[in-house]
Amino acid sequence: MTEIQDYTKAMEILAEYPTRDGLHVDSLLDSDSHGALTYNDFLILPGSINFPASDVSLDTKVTRRFTIKAPLLSSPMDTVTGHNMAIHMALLGGLGIIHNNCPADEQADMVRKVKRYENGFILDPIVLSPTATVEDAKQLKVKWGFGGFPVTENGNLHSKLLGIVTNRDIQFHDKPQDSVTTVMSTDLVTAPAGTTLAEANNVLRSSKKGKLPIVDKDGLLISLLSRSDLMKNIHYPLASKLDSKQLICAAAISTHEVDKIRLQKLVDAGLDIVVVDSSQGNSMYQIAMIKYIKQQFPQIDVIAGNIVTREQAAALIAAGADGLRIGMGSGSACITQEVMAVGRPQAAAVRSVCSFAARFGVPCIADGGVQNLGHIVKGLALGASTVMMGGLLAGTTESPGEYFVSKEGQLVKAYRGMGSIAVMEDKGQSKEGNAGVSRYFSENDKVKVAQGVAGSVIDRGSVTKFLPYLVTGIQHSLQDIGVRNLDSLRDGVERGIVRFEMRSGSAQAEGNVNGLHTHEKKLYA
Ligand code: IMP
Predict the structure, then answer these.
(1) How far apart are CA 167 and CA 146, in angstroms?
(2) What is the pLDDT of residues 3-58, one digit of tens each?
(3) Beta strands 411-416 and 273-276: pairing type?
(4) Structural domains of the chain ordered from first start
């Protein structure tokens, strides 16, 4: 029989038995009949596989105007997303939201590092003057994480190019006070103004140099092209980039007046998306902040939150939000539900807000409570465009902080809730007073009420291995469900083609490893 005959026959058989297996998503999440659910309480039923997993596209909107290729975000927490995480999340197709528990200038520096990381033409390269020393060059390398600085007559762009100081020129030079002109390379290969990116890339390939300065007819430096960027373009096909080839950059702010100054600094540093970070997003402070941003910086997309109900969503959409962040009390380091008695199980919250926000074309982030790959797929199936993780990424090489050995002898990294006493006290010590995070409306009180805990998480290796595992895993999951992309997943769920089923406590136990004397849970290779 042909494929079509097979299919027709199967449909005929099914037609005789019109009841379908599983539940429509609305019946699954009907809280009147069985209370609110979260990710572990249900499964998605399999569909039919008729395409390879590698065909599954995970392109998705993160806000109204920004699309990325992997639906994965890292949380704006000071043990999760600094510039290194933001760079790698973007290179791998996702997005890292830079935390704000630091002075505004420090956060703006992190934004700058992300925006400078991968460029076509670097239009604002770091330029040295002939009076700069080898020590200056070494310090700049530490500060920016890259080397290869052009030297011009007056130390600025649009001035005569004299040479380039590369890593090799300064690495073993033991007279730190020498002028950079004594060590810089002067046998330069340059390309003229007007060279296209493709032509410049070819010159760079054949010249075997690390940097290609672009100069005008008078030898004045106009821009720079970097070999390592060329390599990055090859190694990171999913990278979240703009047409300019710069990585997309997002960062968090709070809702206070001083955050307007912070935001200006972030925008000056090249910010694309701002996340207004609050544990209860439906406040007059946040609404005023969203309106201010939309009016003052129309080029920036605003993600508002956190919220868990449609009523909260309506208020933020009305204020102009370009994206919503969903979750209250589901985070792994969070005690909000216990302490405040306020919040919502994450599956119920995601479905409720996403189905509402979809009517207004506002993409949603399922934030928190993601303990494994399956939870990511469930968040997406319930309507989220992207999923945000804290604890799952805190143990990677790219998160801020150092590894240490726990009492039990395991390699771990610190992970702390942004509403933990540890964070609130750190913030209190900050020089700028109200400089950093202010997410819980309690940071400046005499008595601080914690909504999070501080602890540690196990080493997870690099996100350059972990994210591709998540991406490939999601592709396989969508293949099992029988959908080729996230739009089809959402559409299938809405139309009742993708079906769900609740699972009892014993069903959950059955779905995990059981009955083995010992086992090692290695998740990817
Ligand atoms: P996780 O991925 O389950 O670890 O959750 C991360 C999310 O928890 C973050 O993106 C925040 O929305 C939330 N979160 C961060 N810090 C706290 C806290 O101290 N209390 C409650 N929720 C928190």
Answers:
(1) 9
(2) 677 778 888 888 888 788 999 999 999 888 888 999 999 999 999 998 999 999 99
(3) unpaired
(4) 53-117+239-510 (3.20.20.70), 134-226 (3.10.580.10)
pLDDT digits (tens, 9 = 90+) for 467-484: 999 999 999 999 999 999
Q: Which residues contact 293 (CB under 8 A, 6 or more apart)?
A: 263, 274, 276, 300, 302, 320
Check if the beta carbon of residue 138 is closer than 8 Å to that of residue 121.
no
DSSP 243-266: TTSPBP-EEEE-SSTHHHHHHHHH
Q: What's the order of all strands across the beta sheet hosting 211-215?
A: 191-192, 211-215, 221-226
How many angstroms separate the alpha carbon of residue 95 from the centre of ligand 1?
17
Q: What residues are paired with 252 via a beta bridge?
A: 275
Distance of CA 333 to the CA centre of its chain: 19
Ligand 1 pocket list (CB less than 6 A):
75, 77, 306, 327, 331-334, 336, 367-370, 388-392, 417-420, 451-452
Tell me if the pTM is above 0.90.
no
Q: Which of 418, 440, 457 to mutate to test the pocket of ligand 1 (most atoms within 8 A of CB)?
A: 418
